[in-house]
Write a structure and sequence with these properties.
Length: 170
């Protein structure tokens, strides 16, 4: 994800820090000031819960990473989603995949005019095999070159589906 896409996480992090700051103020007042914990525990618990509910999604958005490792020797594809120190990995057999696809994804405004187009390169198999997106590009030529390079390395044929309608059963 680009740095400007991570800007979405900043309001969540700010909200989480806001509630964390007031939780610390409540604790400081109760431990070193004139506050009483028996009167403030509900407010402290709510501030801590709101800090987690608002701040944790911001932390996940900020540290979100998605990458694919191709191991030709073991014939495996390792899909990794990482959120800070938490990592989820899925192992898939390389023999499940039959070709590389190049597809387009267009964003439109209210009037139906195309504002941006992205070209995705994915590993695809037969029916019932979920595709794995390898990369996304702004230019069709870059996507085509990347697909041919990966296709040559994995001995898979790239297929260009740009401008075609998606299948109804997928």
């Amino acid at each position: 994800m680009n740095w400007y896409m991570r800007m979405v996480s900043l309001p969540f992090l700010a909200g989480g820090l806001y509630f964390t700051y007031y939780s610390a103020q409540i604790l400081r007042q109760d431990l070193f000031g004139y506050g009483y914990f028996r009167d403030d525990w509900v407010g402290l618990a709510l501030c801590l819960v709101f800090a987690l509910v608002v701040g944790l999604p911001g932390l996940v958005l900020l540290t979100l990473r998605y990458f694919v490792d191709l191991d030709r020797i073991l014939q495996q594809v390792i899909v990794t989603r990482k959120f800070g120190p938490v990592k989820f990995e899925r192992l898939r057999k390389l023999t499940e995949f039959k070709f590389l696809s190049i597809t387009d994804h267009s964003d439109t405004d209210k009037d139906g005019c195309v504002t941006s187009t992205f070209y995705d390169v994915s590993l695809c198999g037969g029916k019932g095999i979920a595709p794995i997106m390898l990369s996304s590009f702004d230019k069709r030529k870059e996507a085509t070159v990347f697909a041919h390079q990966i296709g040559t390395a994995l001995k898979l044929q790239p297929k260009d589906y740009v401008g075609t309608e998606p299948d109804e059963d997928t």
